[in-house]
Amino acid sequence: MIGFSLTDEQRMLQRTAREFAQNVVAPAARQVAEQPDMVPWSVCGEVYRQGAELGFTGLLLPENQGGMGGSCVDLALVMEELGAADVAVAANYFSLTATMHLLISRFGSDEQRRRYLAPVGGRGPLFSGALNEPNVAASDLFSPAPGPNIGIRTTAERDGDHYVLNGGKVAFVTNGGVADAYLVLARTNFEAPPAMGMSMFYVPNGTPGLSFGKQAELIGWKTAHHAEVYLDNVRVPGADRIGEEGKAGMLLMAVPEMPIGLAAAYVGLARAAYEYARDYAKQRVSWGKPIIEHQAVALKLADMYVETQAARLMVWEAAYACETDPQAAGMLKAPAAKTFAVDVAIKNAQRSVEILGGYGITKEYASGGYLNDAMIGYACDFTREMLRLGMVPFL
Ligand SMILES: Cc1cc2nc3c(=O)[nH]c(=O)nc-3n(C[C@H](O)[C@H](O)[C@H](O)COP(=O)(O)OP(=O)(O)OC[C@H]3O[C@@H](n4cnc5c(N)ncnc54)[C@H](O)[C@@H]3O)c2cc1C
Hints:
Layout (H helix, E strand, L loop, with lengths): L7 H27 L5 H14 L18 H14 L1 H21 L2 H7 L10 E4 L24 E5 L2 E8 L11 E7 L10 E7 L5 E6 L11 E11 L3 E2 L5 H6 L3 H27 L1 E2 L2 E2 L4 H30 L1 H30 L11 H13 L4 H8 L4
Parallel strand pairs: 1-4
Antiparallel strand pairs: 2-3, 3-7, 4-5, 5-8, 6-7, 9-10
Helix pairs in contact: 1-2, 1-3, 3-4, 3-7, 3-8, 4-7, 7-8, 7-9, 7-10, 8-9, 9-10, 9-11
């Protein structure tokens, strides 16, 4: 049985997300874009607070843990709306945090859930995942080969009932420097393949030995924060290891909602790039008529619509599979949806730039910004190549 109709509650959630996206997210993104020297969090912190109040950060948490008890389809609906207004706000603040809340809910102990998910300053905590490292290909995470020289080098060594963490993470670490807490990956076994030799630790901001370095300056995603994370003899109680020792790779695979939320945000970008170009094409005149009446332009717009719809359906189906077939969702459908949605976003953004002619590459018009934001999706949360290679054993 296949059904594509949304429930009344889902329509209301979608409407709430759309209003929030248009009235709060979009103006904040414009404010940051207009003042490049501004610290994005000084504006986005309030956006995050308001979104958390609407329940978006705890969207996937069960109601008895203070969440909305929402499904991954609900997440996809919200992220598409936020992504259409600003993909970086959607991806970095809301999708990442909602899915990290879920990871903690799914794999944390009762005591960890109570402590880690407790409100900070009247709102849900902002999380960050510190996984990858400079001078280590992030793609190593997918390496089936064991070896001490493959994969991350940050170490977690036992010292009584604590672990001691040492290492450094890439300047790409999302929310680095502004997050309330970091989920840090560290190696507890150098002999196993990377995905089977890492453990995950909860390190709250302010922990002695935790510090931040260079901030990645990206071509887009101007509303986001990324920074290097350093761990210098950071002492983490054994009670703050999430999941079993050496099983962090499995934890990440078991939250397909993470790539699906990101994919949905990129469907939002694909939609926004299409709608922006369509509206422009209806009013720009050449050869005496609106350019949408020239077939070369019209077909581009039709393709943009078709592919956005295809990406949306893939995301929805992957989201639905999170409940019906989590294994297939994690191993095949979520990476496929993220790959496809980002590819469509990149193509739509490029077509949008083309339809605007010379104006497409100016800062005054949105299309160029869409293209920069779209390209970032390629490498963020693993590249198209890695995601597809990861699927191969399950084909
Ligand atoms: C905006 C943004 C946000 C990010 N946020 C975070 C974060 O919050 N936390 C974090 O830890 N990291 C984060 N990252 C890091 C991100 O996960 C990596 O940049 C990404 O996985 C690519 O890794 P890499 O740059 O090391 O590329 P590499 O692994 O060096 O790969 C380089 C190229 O080679 C290809 N390649 C590599 N190995 C193979 C192979 N075996 N077969 C075929 N092709 C291969 C890749 O597809 C790619 O095209 C973020 C990155 C970006 C851009």
